[in-house]
Design a protein that fits this description.
Chain B: GO terms for molecular function: 2-methoxy-6-polyprenyl-1,4-benzoquinol methyltransferase activity; demethylmenaquinone methyltransferase activity. The complex is a heterodimer. In chain A, 63% of the residues lie in helices and 14% in strands. By secondary structure, chain A is of the alpha+beta class. Chain A has two domains: 111 residues, Nonspecific Lipid-transfer Protein, Chain A, CATH 3.30.1050.10; 85 residues, no CATH class. In chain A, strand 1 and strand 2 form a beta hairpin. The longest helix of chain A is centred in the C-terminal third of the chain and has 36 residues. The radius of gyration of chain A is 30 Å and the shape is flat. Chain A starts with a helix and ends with a helix. A seven-stranded mixed β-sheet of chain B has the order 6-5-4-7-8-10-9, with helices on both faces. Classes of the chains: A alpha+beta, B alpha/beta. At the A-B interface, helix 1 and strand 2 of A face helix 3 and helix 4 of B.
Chain lengths: 207, 256
């Protein structure tokens, strides 16, 4: 009963998030009627996912047949939930899939493509004007931080390479490396020439 | 334990809460209770169970095994909590019938579901659980949540449900039952006989209906008795799950 309650709360939050993407629910509607079992090894836990046009339903048990079973350790499942490339995690060797894997791949695809419209949700609570002001402010802050970070990066690199001479600059390093490559090639040619000369002067060879 | 059917000289009586009433009057009295509480039924359910009724119903849905294309009958469906979920599960190729004997409850349920956009695969039928107006072997799953204790002849209702189920179909009975823990039982008694009528008085101005609710729960057969009643009616593989220390039990039986 505790697990049922927990899943009900997770389901409520998850479906609220899914509603923030206008394309997620219509895409999930194609999976209506499908049942995906997630069998977590270590710790042993089973849960069932039922997609529909209302979102995802999570159940701790399901009496009907399942279409697809995903068996994986908890670490892989967490990776699957957080990773941007979910299909790559599904192809990992510790992940087992039984049944119609297309259902799971489609669900993973929907979750991977989520683009959440936070501003819409915020506007329901704060109203359009306040959301616009807040959104504009947050966006300009984010831009400012991005630019600040990029400029700090550049300045730091310039200081370390040019002013303090602690590090070698990129172009200088590239020139040095190409010089080293050239010397290495020259050295190999010289070695080959020596080898050939020493062979031609060797009396035993002429014999 | 359920219905005291007497000889032909006197009208048989049955219980209505702790009182005994003639059988012909029980349905009428139960109807009065539900006409009175229908408008605030959901609010009272949430308040009195602390939202637990949602989890109990959720568990029933998990065990129902309903899938796309199934035909489901939700008896005593009231305000349509189970029907809404079933409608989603059976999809456009399935069908859900919300049946309730009480016109007020059915009206509240129908309006609520239509407001939520649940339509197309749902039908609303005013029907008596003892004489279900459906063909034999018609449904894949029949549920009755918190309704069986209000039925006058429970054995007849169970047999009627068996009749309309397809072979292999499932009956789920979600109903208040007997707490398995003595301490819990005492606390539950105090809660139901003091707090529930008080809340009824404060919110719906009707303490009698909620006193009936508490009394009818005590008069309802316990887990084992209901199980044997289902077996007697003809169900196979009857099992039950206690929830919240036995305050509620979910019985499941399969039509052979």
């Amino acid at each position: 009963m505790l697990l049922t309650g927990l899943l009900a709360s997770v389901e409520l939050g998850l479906n609220r998030v899914l509603r923030l993407d206008s394309t997620a629910l219509p895409r999930l509607a194609h999976l209506t009627g499908k049942v995906i079992a997630v069998d977590c090894r270590n710790p042993a836990l089973q849960l069932f996912i039922l997609p529909s046009d209302e979102g995802l339903m999570l159940a701790s048990q399901w009496a009907a047949d399942v279409d697809c079973t995903l068996r994986a350790p908890a670490s892989s499942l967490v990776k699957l939930a957080l990773s941007k490339d979910k299909t790559a995690v599904l192809h990992a060797p510790e992940v087992e899939l039984d049944g119609d894997s297309g259902v799971l791949l489609e669900l993973a695809g929907v979750l991977q493509d989520l683009e959440l419209d936070w501003e819409y949700e915020l506007s329901r609570w704060l109203g359009p004007v306040a959301t616009q002001l807040l959104g504009g402010h947050l966006r300009s802050r984010a831009r400012w931080y991005q630019q600040g970070f990029a400029s700090l990066n550049q300045n730091l690199a310039e200081y370390l390479a040019e002013e303090s001479r602690t590090l070698v600059g990129q172009r200088e390093a590239e020139a040095r490396f190409s010089e080293l490559d050239r010397i290495k090639l020259d050295l190999e040619r010289l070695e080959a020439r020596f080898e050939r000369l020493s062979r031609s002067l060797d009396p035993s060879d002429n014999a | 334990m359920t219905d005291q059917r007497k000889g032909s000289d006197a009208e048989p009586t049955t219980h209505f809460g702790f009182k005994n009433v003639p059988e012909s009057q029980k349905a009428e009295k139960v109807a009065e209770v539900f006409h009175s509480v229908a408008a605030k039924y959901d609010l009272m359910n949430d308040l009195l169970s602390g939202g637990m009724h949602r989890l109990w119903k959720r568990f029933a849905i998990e065990l129902s095994g309903v899938r796309s294309g199934n035909r489901v009958l939700d008896i005593a469906g009231g305000t349509g909590d189970l029907t809404r979920k079933f409608s989603n599960l059976v999809g456009p190729t399935g069908q859900v019938v919300l049946a309730d004997i009480n016109e007020s409850m059915l009206k509240v349920g129908r309006d609520r579901l239509l407001d939520l956009g649940v339509a197309g695969n749902v039908e609303f039928v005013q029907a008596d659980a003892e004489k279900l107006p459906f063909p034999d072997n018609h449904f894949d799953c029949v549920t009755i949540a918190f309704g069986l204790r209000n039925v006058t002849h429970k054995e007849d209702a169970l047999r009627s449900m068996l009749r309309v189920l397809k072979p292999g179909g499932r009956l789920l009975v979600l109903e208040f039952s007997k707490p398995t823990n003595a301490l819990m039982s005492k606390a539950y008694d105090a809660y139901s006989f003091a707090f529930m009528p008080l809340m009824g008085k404060l919110i719906t101005n009707d303490s009698e209906s909620y006193r009936y609710l508490a009394e009818s729960i005590r008069m309802h057969p316990n887990q084992e008795t209901l199980k044997s009643m289902m077996v007697e009616a003809g169900f196979d593989r009857v099992t039950y799950h206690n929830m919240t220390a036995g305050i509620v039990a979910l019985h499941r039986g399969i039509k052979p």
